[in-house]
Amino acid sequence: MFNKISLSFLLLFLISSSLIAQETDSLKQKTDTLRQKTDTLKQKKPKLRDQGKLKLYAFIPATAAVAYGFVALNADFLRSADNQIYKSIKHDNRNFYTSADDYLRYVPAAAVYGLDLFGVKGKNNFRDKTAILFISSAFTGVTITALKKSSNRLRPNGLNDYSFPSGHAATAFASAEFLRQEYGEISPWYTAAGYSVATTTAVLRLYKSYHWFSDVVAGAGIGILSTKFAYLVYPAVKRAVFGKKGSNMVMLPSYQNGVAGLSFSGKF
């Protein structure tokens, strides 16, 4: 039983581990570079336009995850694997239920703002990272909704036919990638924490019988790609909206009359 369940989570583990390994290698290279430049007194943050230059290999794990999910829709051997994993999980967990997954999927993104609030500065300012998160969320939502309506895959619990792909997994991994992008260069532990929370969210969806294994794998890939896409296009979006010289507009969180929101101020 333990071996079957362990194998069911292997692909999710490989996705997360490969991304964490990429971040660790990147951090090591940058640390070595900084050591060589001992005469540099102040490290400059990467320019926003440079954040849009992503290396092709960074897309491979997430793309493979999405491909796995699509192949599993019609490949008998992968559908059989989904069924075996489902039966293995439910054998000793027939009455398992928790609502933790409904909240955990947002934790990594919330951590970005929490760290910023406590003075740990990430890659981007509040306005830019909020805009990036909005683009990522929009792309994730549109993609997931379109695929759910077109795939018509029945959930393991028979509730409806919106099983593929997992929206919770997509949101969780998009959130984890957002945390990695903003704070992964500061410490790989931020990346590890974010992807651990995302993986936990995906596992809980399996235990609750809301998804097949291939559903959460595909959802994870879509979420990661959505955030990478957001970072890739945002520099161009920002230039189109604010122009090359940028803008004096500032976006800040606000709280008035018991209602939380965003406030804008600037010079025109």
Automatic annotation (TrEMBL):
Coiled coil spans: none
Signal peptide: 1-21
One Pfam family linked to the record: PAP2
One function term, GO molecular function aspect: sphingosine-1-phosphate phosphatase activity
Keyword tags: Membrane, Signal, Transmembrane, Transmembrane helix
Transmembrane segments: 56-78, 130-147, 216-237
Span of domain Phosphatidic acid phosphatase type 2/haloperoxidase: 126-231
InterPro entries named among the record's database cross-references: PAP2/HPO, PAP2/HPO_sf
Domain of life of the native organism: Bacteria
Name of this protein: PAP2 superfamily protein
Source species: Pedobacter hartonius
